[in-house]
Automatic annotation (TrEMBL):
InterPro entries: YjiS-like. This is YjiS-like domain-containing protein. It holds the Pfam family YjiS-like. Residues 18-53 form the YjiS-like domain.
């Protein structure tokens, strides 16, 4: 909007891609940690077991299975 101040477009920022990659890695790490806190019954509901969770939580942060 005209006259709007304090708004930064990240697409025009030189390091926008790096920022988005870092944010995605951080979110992925948080999701893996939350997955590890689920109970066995909750894991069974989503079709996982403790071995699947252990394998996922031990992955490195840069290993993105969706490769976005």
């Amino acid at each position: 909007m005209k006259g709007q101040k304090g708004f930064v477009l990240l697409d025009k920022w030189p390091f926008a891609g790096l920022f988005h990659t870092f944010a995605r890695w951080q979110l992925l790490h948080q999701e893996r940690q939350l997955l590890a806190t689920l109970s066995d019954d909750a894991l069974k509901d989503i079709g996982l077991n403790r071995a699947d969770v252990a394998q996922e939580t031990h992955r490195h942060f840069w290993e993105d299975p969706l490769r976005k």
